[in-house]
Specification:
InterPro entries: PH-like_dom_sf, PH_domain. There is one protein chain. Helix content is 35%, strand content 25%. It has helices spanning 69-82, 84-102, 110-117, 121-124, and strands spanning 7-11, 14-18, 29-32, 36-40, 50-56, 61-66. The strands form 2 sheets. The chain has a 3-stranded antiparallel beta sheet with strand order 1-2-3, covered by helices on one side. Strands 4-5-6 form a 3-stranded antiparallel beta sheet, with helices on one face. It starts with 6 loop residues before the first strand and ends with a helix.
């Protein structure tokens, strides 16, 4: 197994990885956090740290290691909450709470309809 040290930054549902911890370094790549799960790998420290994996529905699996078990827990929690599906559910919940306070109910979730059909709303309406 080849192991290369990289540094990561999480922005929304994007996990950027860098060659160094320098805050001005350019990202070497990006992992889109969609259709995945975080999996803890054992309780003990391995040769490179405390390990967890990102496992994607398409079968890809990415290994990560942290310096401490606490860091691993924090990364797994942050990454677990960063996925598109989680963000979408949070948005839906917040919209429902706003609507309840306003006393309104939406008949159509416009964003969900657009995502499901791949079309803009104007394309779906005929006059």
């Amino acid at each position: 197994m080849v192991s290369l040290e990289k540094w990561c930054r999480l922005r929304g549902n994007l996990l950027f990885y860098f060659k160094s911890a320098d805050q001005f370094s350019e990202p070497q790549g990006c992992i889109v956090l969609e259709k995945y799960r975080c999996v803890r790998h054992g309780d003990l420290r391995e040769y490179d740290g405390f390990v967890f994996y990102l496992e994607f529905e398409d079968g890809l699996r990415q290994r990560f290691a942290t310096n401490t078990d606490q860091e691993r827990l924090e990364w797994m929690q942050a990454i677990g909450l960063a996925g598109y599906d989680v963000k979408r559910a949070q948005l839906k919940y917040l919209r429902e709470q706003i609507d309840k306070k306003r006393g309104m109910i939406h008949d159509v979730d416009v964003d969900m309809l657009r995502l499901q059909t791949g079309k803009e709303i104007g394309d779906l309406i005929s006059f």
